[in-house]
Design a protein that fits this description.
seven-stranded mixed β-sheet, four-stranded antiparallel β-sheet
Length: about 120
């Protein structure tokens, strides 16, 4: 079992910045990827940004150039620097980890941290 603990959400005005942090508990198995998803009111959960064990990063088109993911799977910590925030970025942000050998890897989720961007 892997626990993910998030921090850093809050209320910010449009154009402002926030930094989210996520730390994974120790795991026997390798973490293949860690990242952030978000779910706005009445919307489906969507990928925001992810970093693989090979340090390859992936971003949603809507956040490219504004958000930066850092950290790494080896240490089990990831950060999401969010700049130039927009009201449409308002959502619950969830840390995600994909852990274990590919044949029986599992997905783990944090409890979520709320980000609210006011106009």
């Amino acid at each position: 079992q892997v626990q993910l603990v998030e921090s850093g959400g809050g209320l910010v005005q449009a154009g402002g910045s926030l930094r989210l942090s996520c730390a994974a508990s120790k795991t026997f198995f390798e973490i293949n990827a860690m990242g952030w998803y978000r779910q706005g009111a009445g919307k489906q959960r969507e990928l925001v940004a992810e970093i693989s064990s090979g340090a390859v990063t992936t971003y949603a088109d809507s956040v490219k150039g504004r958000f930066t993911i850092s950290g790494g799977t080896a240490k089990g910590t990831v950060y999401l620097q969010m700049n130039t925030l927009k009201p449409e970025d308002t959502a619950a942000y969830y840390c995600h980890a994909h852990v274990g050998p590919l044949d029986f890897a599992r997905d783990y989720w944090g409890k979520g941290t709320l980000v609210t961007v006011s106009s």
